[in-house]
Design brief:
Layout: E1 2-12, E2 19-26, E3 29-37, E4 43-52, E5 62-64, E6 76-82, E7 93-99, H1 105-113, E8 118-124, E9 135-136, E10 144-146
Parallel strand pairs: 1-8, 7-9
Antiparallel strand pairs: 1-4, 2-3, 2-6, 4-5, 6-7, 8-10
Length: 147
Amino acid sequence: METTIQFKVTLLLPTAGVDFGLQKGSGNNYEVLSKQRSDGNNLLFQFGVIVKGDRAKDAMPKLSGPFVQGPAGGKFIYINIGTSAGQTNSEWARRLKIPLRGITWAMVDNLLVNPDAFLATNVPGTGKDGSPNCATVKPFDGWTLSA
C-alpha cells in the first residue's frame, strides 16, 4: 500500500518578527516552503506525507516523502526559523522538530474514507524565554483526526 495523507501544523503564537517555514528535503539539499513572517498570531503549515507499509507485517504505517526526516521509528518534520528559513537579518538560526509518532493504521483508514480529513497538531511557537521555540517539541500532544 502507498498513499498520501495530509497534515496541518498550527504554530501557536510564534515570536513576532521572525520567519518560519516548512523544510522540504534534508541535509544541505533542502528548500523552505510556506515561509511566513510571524506577527505574533498563529501560523499554519500544511503538507502531505506518503504512507507505505504492509498491515500484516508492520504494526505502524511507514511514513516518508520530501518533508519527512529521521530514521525508521523516529520520523519527524522540521519548521525552519530565522536564518534557517532564509531571513537574512534574523538573530535566530533554529529548527523546530515535530515528531510523526502515534500515527496508526486506524487513523490512515479514517483519512482514506474521508478525503477532506487530515491529521492536525498544535505546537507552541515561543519558548519560555520569549525566543522562537526550537529543538524537539515538548510536551508533544500528538496528532488528531480533523476534517
